[in-house]
Amino acid sequence: MSAPTRDIQAAGTVVLRRVQDGPREVLLVHRPKYDDWSFPKGKLERGEHATAAAVRETQEETGLRVRLGRPLGAQRYRVGRGWKRVHYWTARVRGDADDVTGYARPGEIDEVAWVPIAEATRVLTYPHDRATMREALAVRRKSYPLVILRHAESRARATWHGDDEVRPLLAEGKRQAERLAAVLDAYGVERIVTSTSTRCRQTVEPYAAAADVAIEATALLSEEGASAEKTAALMVGLAHELPARGPLVVCSHRPVLPGLFTALGMRKEALAKGEMAIAHIRKGKVVAIERHLPL
Known about the structure:
By secondary structure, the protein is α/β, with parallel strands linked by helices. Helices cover about 30% and strands about 30% of the residues.
């Protein structure tokens, strides 16, 4: 008996916008090969995270840079003799440039359009896309991602004889940090707050350099300087600043993480090194949570 084949992995977005004095609209693409209307999506490249693929494919198929919002249920359907699984997120265009007039991707996409939501259900070709559309509309209200990140793979305490606060990442941890940058970019992270410990700073440095975002280091997120009351107050303050200052990543340590989750009213999560939990926050409250392991 042959081994079962793995699902083809793909990712895409449901991009919504509100037009002044007009109806809310959704971004759709037309593929001439299949003569269908659907959401921008595509297969993951080798070693690519689904979040990064969703943003990349949306830009390639529509010309627009987006940031991810709340996660949606994955679609799974048969293709040929196998199956495809498409991971979806709601998304919004970064900045104000959202004109898609005349955009095409030769051979794949011949038309991109903002379609009024009232028409989208009729225009979409497939039932599973119409179901995803309904799900996206149910969670369409704007929220902001707050990424809680545990530092990447670091030197073991038993093999490190210096000050624990300067214990560095391993080579694998540095590779994880490089790959994490694409995920943070997918959420449009505009602010980095991290423990003062070297292993946390090294985890966020690749993204900070790529996105030209300053690193804000605080001992309240370190193992040595965390205070239950003060660290919790820091997290609550960061959550309330999201609308004014944009999506945020907070990098800390295993013993400190439970207090961060509790401060946000979340269930305590045990994150692996390099793993992140994304809390989608609206008006100071967590409305959705997702987790992503390092690649």
